[in-house]
Design a protein that fits this description.
single chain; 157 residues; alpha+beta; 5 helices; globular
């Protein structure tokens, strides 16, 4: 994660899933004055964050229903899915790409890119992400070099 931070300049994180939440286990601060202030032990809703989506991207609609129940999902921004059907559609697109890139998905003004970390059987066991201000990185870099660095780090881990 330190190498990932050094390569991207962004804060780097690792989290695991606990039910319908993610728990941050590692946080490496970015090199700019604008850095992620989320700390180890912090919890976020899995459906509303990029790392959460990386952790649940392999779940089908039945597994999502078992995990989340029937209650509406809480929206953090206008981009957050509020139904399981909407979430399942977003996750299908995430699976197709193998990573999640977002701008203002969980918090306005924040750009994030996350990828799942898989064990030797292919099961998702953790997720990593880089987080920075939307103004610090353009969309082309996020979909190019930043994505490549995150995917390489996830594979290495």
């Amino acid at each position: 994660l330190q190498r990932l931070r050094d390569a991207t300049g962004a804060s780097a994180h690792l989290a695991v899933r606990d039910g319908v939440e993610i728990v941050y286990l590692v946080q490496v601060s970015g090199q700019s004055a604008l850095t992620s202030n989320i700390g180890v032990g912090s919890r976020l809703p899995a459906h509303g964050s990029t790392m959460g989506r990386a952790l649940i991207m392999d779940l089908d609609i039945q597994a999502l229903a078992a995990a989340f129940g029937a209650a509406p999902l809480t929206a953090m921004t206008e981009q957050t899915p509020t139904t399981l059907k909407e979430l399942a559609g977003i996750l299908a697109a995430d699976r197709g790409r193998g990573y999640i890139a977002s701008r203002s998905f969980y918090e306005r003004g924040v750009a994030s890119l996350a990828a799942p970390v898989r064990d030797e059987t292919g099961t998702i066991v953790a997720a990593i992400s880089v987080v920075t201000s939307e103004h610090m990185v353009d969309a082309e870099a996020m979909q190019g070099a930043v994505k490549d660095h995150v995917l390489e780090a996830a594979a290495e881990i």
